[in-house]
Amino acid sequence: MAPMTTRRRLIATGIALAALGLTGCGMDVQTLQPYTPADGINVDVAGIKVRGALIVAGASGPGLLSVGIIAQNADALTGVSGDALSPDGKSEYPLTVTGPASIPLPAATLVPITDKGIVVTSPALKAGLLANIVLSFQSGQKVAMTIPVISRDEAPYRTLPPVGGASSAPASPAASATPGSTPTAGTSSTPTATATRS
């Protein structure tokens, strides 16, 4: 009987040690954290937070810029420029941008730009591809990023306002990318943006 008792004690000890090890994991492990997958790109650059940046477009034709912006200090979005990328990733199709000349950004407030009517067009602008975008701000800050072009036929985007109803006033400044070039974020003193999938 003694060997059986010893075996039971060893098993009980092993279970207790395993339970102790598991409790050490706590509630902060990555797999227990909430995560909501999204299509857009997040970028943080010195006082500017860009959230969920993407372009919503049909099979071909104009697209709607969808993005949320948080400025640490009061600012304004004063320009959008860029170019659509071809399927092989080349920057050779400048975007034509229309929309409001300026969008106010109150301090520390998330401002959704999706309903502001910033429309981008390019021969290469197609769902499933990418586009280079540069956002310019009244403060002189610039944010450059590469964002996805998402189909308007996907469920979350079907309710967006039609592109045809957007403002036709040119965005200011409406600097277009030179064919074959990648938009830059201004001078070398501009902080580098780090783009991450949300």
Compact overview of the structure:
The chain is mainly beta.
SSE map:
Elements: H1 2-23, E1 41-45, E2 48-57, E3 63-71, E4 75-85, E5 91-94, E6 96-98, E7 103-105, E8 110-112, E9 119-121, E10 130-137, E11 142-151, E12 194-197
Parallel strand pairs: 2-11
Antiparallel strand pairs: 1-2, 1-12, 2-3, 3-8, 3-9, 4-5, 4-7, 4-10, 6-9, 10-11
The helix content is 10-25%
Order of helices and strands: HEEEEEEEEEEEE
Strand content: 35-45%
Decide which structural class fits the backbone: mainly beta
Total strands: the figure is 12
Unreliable residue runs: 27-36, 165-198
Oligomer: single chain
Provide a descriptive summary of the structure in words.
The structure is a single chain. The chain has one helix at 2-23; strands spanning 41-45, 48-57, 63-71, 75-85, 91-94, 96-98, 103-105, 110-112, 119-121, 130-137, 142-151, 194-197. The chain has 198 residues and is mainly beta. Strands 1, 2, 3, 4, 5, 6, 7, 8, 9, 10, 11 and 12 form a 12-stranded mixed beta sheet that branches. A hairpin with a 5-residue loop joins strand 4 (75-85) and strand 5 (91-94). The chain is elongated.
